[in-house]
Amino acid sequence: MSKNLVIVESPAKAKTIQKYLGKDFEVKSSFGHIRDLPKKGMGIDLATFSPDYEVSADKKKLVTELKAAVKKAEMVWLASDEDREGEAIAWHLADELKLKPESRKRIVFHEITKNAILKAIENPRDIDQNLVNAQQARRVLDRIVGFEMSPVLWKKVKPGLSAGRVQSVAVRLIVEREKEIREFVPKASFKLDGIFLNKTEQEIAARLKKDFEKEEDAEKFLEKAKTTEFKVLNVETKPGTRSASAPFTTSTLQQEASSRLGYNVTNTMRLAQRLYEEGYITYMRTDSVNLSQEAIEGAKKQIVSEYGAEYSSPRNYTTKSASAQEAHEAIRPTDFAVKSIGDAQLNRLYQLIYRRTLASQMANAKIEKTVIEIGNASLPQHFEAQGEVIIFDGFLKAYGIVKTEDDDEENNEKLLPKVSVGEILSYKKITASEKFTRPSARYTEAGLVKKLEELGIGRPSTYAPTIQTIQNREYVDKREIDPQTREVVKMSLTKDKIKKEVLEEKFGGDKNKFVPTDIGEVVNDFLTDNFKEILDYGFTARVEESFDEIANGDQKWKEMMTNFYSKFHPRIEDVEENADRATGDRLLGVDPKTGKNVHARIGRFGAMIQIGETEDEEKPIFASLMAGQNIATISLAEALELFKLPFELEAFEGQPVSVGVGRFGPYVKWGETFISIPKGEDPLSVNQARAEEIINEKKKADAPIATYKGDPVTKGTGRFGPFIKYKDIFVNVPKKYNFDNLSQSDINELIDAKLEKEANRYIQQWEKEKISIENGRWGPFVKFGKAMFKIPKKKDDTKYEAEDLKEVSLDEVKKWITDQDKNAFAEKKKPAAKKPAAKKTTAAKKTVAKKK
Description:
alpha+beta, Rossmann fold, Topoisomerase I, domain 3, Topoisomerase I, domain 4, 7 domains, 6-stranded antiparallel beta barrel, 4-stranded parallel beta sheet, 34% helix, metal-binding, DNA binding
């Protein structure tokens, strides 16, 4: 029996820590939080702001096991993460497991290494109630905001929507950027680039120092340049340096992993969590750039041995953020001697962290910058060529250079040939190109994290879940924006001749950037109009500062909540009572056929076009918007085109064919089969021949690839990856199989395994009633439709075994279900027939007394 029980958050961490502690320690995992606010209902007493925590259903068995382990131990060590969330987990464990102060100890560490764990054991402390209260304040405030604002959205916009303190501000940033892009008016100018040759025919690429606003001015300059003798007017060489960036914080790691590795924020944090839990890096949720003295010395030793003493320049960095917790360290390797790890995906992120930390402790790179001025006194403007030579690579040897998306693609620093002042140069080519100004770029995931951090909104632990939430809610997405086309003028001077041409260039296209959806824009506009303060960037940042003050013990959390709620709740009541419904309605014009108004708006099933008014005697007609179309930008002509869908084509192989657009985009319908039209293809352009082509492609894709016991087997790719289908059974195909070339034995093996698993799944099944007793991961359970129910204990207080459950009657199982859900078998009421809508009359708005 172990005298000591250590409780950590994750099984992976438990496994790593168990290696470092002797037989006197048993390490168990809480699998994150064991308690939280209830899923149904607010779970907060609004008079006192006391939360009503409960052990979640999936954690009850685990809590029972932990209580049994606590009884056997003399001392319980709470070793959850060192942030506020980790402190709250430790507090919930202590409370739920009834741990007395004398029989519990709280330990923290920011790396999972033997030294760090043993040092933590030697320096325990008690639970920091200030950190717990800061976490409770965030959880309670966000629950209240979500629970009180969301029903307002259901009533005023559309059922099923949600609002949140941080998520709504993140959506606001994306919506405002999109509006800025729409309103942006590009300005044209002419940029001149020249390629000049010295005596030895070496090329020097240079750019004119000033752009021309007008085409005729650029042409005049080229005319003058025809007969100009170009000279080297000046050569200037300046020494310079480049210094390394600070070690990674959570947000800078997310940004760099995005730009260098193409990882999204969620993926980066998932991999970083694994690196931390397996002991390779320090804690990955931090806003500090500090390094411990031990880390600085470890980096120095590695740099000197690998690169030489001249590359070493130990230093510590200062965190600019006032809210950063300086006791924490930056994200760094735990052991600089470990240069790489076995897992390829983990290793890519580890290498990024390893090289960034090493570079931060290395000498500055020394460069020599050369600027050559080319021109003639007779010309109004001169050309400038810039070049750069690295004299000493310093930190670049470890980390290299990465270009940001803001860098000018054409401004590449080049190595320049040696020239002297007064030297005559000839021009090979001078080009005047029409260039347009560009609006601010849409946010990438990393860019959004950077902006939230700049505004002081959220903290390291909130970035990834916030970004995931706004996508899950379908307020924003990363749909591809098709580029537009415009004409640009290009003039080239070569061999005393000017050639002018009009070219086409594409602009405005985007991939993998955040774009607001129609519903996202409507919700954002409603919230910014009616809850200005909650959506205010400064207010959201001030709330974060209040949480920091609570964590430092400078503010009481319930006082902060009382102050917040006293202003927030009356606003909720006022908006619910008096605000108008929001549909994002935009009047596009008049339908020339009917003379009725054409609106773009949000309807019950999303964005749509409506011809006619709801109060007209003749009901309006509707059409859904297609992917890529949007309420704010769709034109009248584009809207009217949608009413040509669906349209019928000739029957094919005895089955009717039509083309339409639905919830999942444009489709060809053949009989009862819906076939998606390829992305980017206009459904209105699909004729009989193209429809038959799409149908034949689908038939080919759905053709059987083999048979199993005489029945056909087909294959496809779904949301969970590649699969094969036999009868009504879908079988996932793991990566170890060659999906493009499955053999008959592969197919037999996959289906046999699936059928065996399915056979062991059901203990009893009543298909007609949609009730079954099934084997689950945590033991047997009852399933009714899609709902799952627990199996109660027998009368003698023992658990049912699988053999016992085979004998249980359907009536007994139904009783188990109704004990847990009284309305499970209640007949669903049919919806009442809709009364004909009364004609609306315009009247003065009634003044309604506010609810008390």
